[in-house]
Known about the structure:
Strand order of the largest sheet of chain A: 1-2
Shape of chain A: elongated
Number of domains of chain A: 1
Oligomer: homodimer
CATH architecture of chain A: Orthogonal Bundle
CATH class of chain A: Mainly Alpha
Number of helices of chain A: 5
Strand content of chain A: under 5%
Amino acid sequence: MAAVGIKTGMKIGVLAGRSGLPVKTLRYYEDLGLLPAIGRSEGGYRLFAEESLRRLEFIRRLKTLGLSLEEIQGCLTVHDAGDLPCTDIQIQLERQIGRIDAQIEELGQLRQELQGLLAGWQSDPAKERDVICPNLRV
Amino acid sequence: MAAVGIKTGMKIGVLAGRSGLPVKTLRYYEDLGLLPAIGRSEGGYRLFAEESLRRLEFIRRLKTLGLSLEEIQGCLTVHDAGDLPCTDIQIQLERQIGRIDAQIEELGQLRQELQGLLAGWQSDPAKERDVICPNLRV
DNA sequence: GTATGGTCTCCACAGGGGTGGAGAGTCACT
DNA sequence: AGTGACTCTCCACCCCTGTGGAGACCATAC
């Protein structure tokens, strides 16, 4: 009969201090559904479980790996359903490698083009009619 | 004595058709000062010179090379002052190569990290206490 | 009782390059 | 005179991940 319905938990400032994230960011994450609070205090303050710290670590890690909050939320949803999110995370990370490869490819081509242009660059060309930059011929 | 003060020019729709850019974009460029109109018609319509087409080509080219509109505007300001913008463009393009190199470097490191994680990925690991994804150990 | 600090909600802004729509005015053709 | 196409201005919204502030409430210490 004791302690029934009693919600204990950190207030947002404590979680901010322990996680190193700004209070604003935690509210933002909560709004997005990334970081559910276990409830509210009588005064209306958000209360977070200890587990939130783990969750924030997870979020931070996946963020540094370049996943969007939406993608991270997808993984967390799997976790919250009681399943291991490993497979989903693997898929996301593979997708992320794909995006990175595409970006690197694109950047490499652009770099090539820029290098080519600068290789033949004339620092003081004659002015040309109908062209703003004779080097670019445009 | 003939044709004094008469402003001739394309209306924005014509320029849009000939340049291939949407009317909205041309207005946006004009607002930014990238694409000055030679004036307004009696009815208040923007009028553009033939030269605007060249200017838009120039803008488009530098955009494909990855310069921001602000950087492009810097080059155009030099041009409008009557100077050749080649040197400024060269500087911008070199800076752009620098940015690209930094990005590629960063992406490469991230890719490395992702590859490393996925290399040892276990598709069906045992659940671990205090960890959302055992593979990431977070 | 009151000062201080934590927290609440709601709204706005940042960056960069536009895009969409409303409502009104203009132009050309019939 | 009317119709339709074109243009004007002004405001809002898109992407994404937050951040800043105003005004009000809550909690704790003195």
